[in-house]
Amino acid sequence: MNVKKINLCDQATDLWNFYNPKMPFFVGMIGFSDCRKYNDKNYYVERKNSQLLAIEYIKEGEGFLEINDTTYHLKANSLVILKKHSSHKYYPSSDNLWVKEWIVLDGELAHKMIDWYIGDVPCIENYNADYFFTALKDLHVKYKNDYESFIRYATLLFSSFMIDIDVFLKHNTFSIADKIKSMIDFSSSNLSVKDIADKLHYSVNYVIRTFKSRFGCTPAKYHIQRKIDLAMLYLRTSDESISDISDNLNFIDQHYFSNVFKNYTGLTPSQYRAKFRK
User: What's the pTM?
Assistant: First the structure.
């Protein structure tokens, strides 16, 4: 792979020492580039027959992507998908330097999800991906000493990310209800309805009414159901203790988690694991 890079402002967490080619999903790097802070007008990346799968999100500023004989003018809230084996170059506008988040991925599942949900689209405009990158970084901080757990949760997070992009591409926009759902899906903490309302600058009643009209339940109920769905998955597929699963999903304590889980499934976590774990 021919690579040309001129940049001073890239900050990255390198995870390649955990690489295993048999892993279906792998996060190799999590990065941040702030050309504004460093006044880096020479930022430039060029790859020929790239061996990387990278996703870049322009948070602020502008720039340009040249790929497949087409030049794209990238603005804030642009998502760039750089598939493996593509040849491309990208750089910020010297008049409006960019700030961007990015990840480098590998694994058959990662490539297949990109192909399935995004295809050959190299750039998606007007898509706010802050929630995904914030949640990914929070995951890494939480599991910085446990890559196996990090990648398991990151796989689920990335799946939700791809589904949200699919909805966006099909409808060319996110409704308020879709934005609320994204905030819940990508939150690594217990996000209250008031937190959501404050972030979106709407009333609590409007948030509840809008979400219920679209998804048939309140945001709070959806949040709990999503956590129970994840708990069922972890109980079936992992060896994590019930206490750890409770902590990971931000329940107050194991006792409360067990009660909520039984209310939704009719079984305690231990009974569920014994019944469905193979």
Answer: 0.70
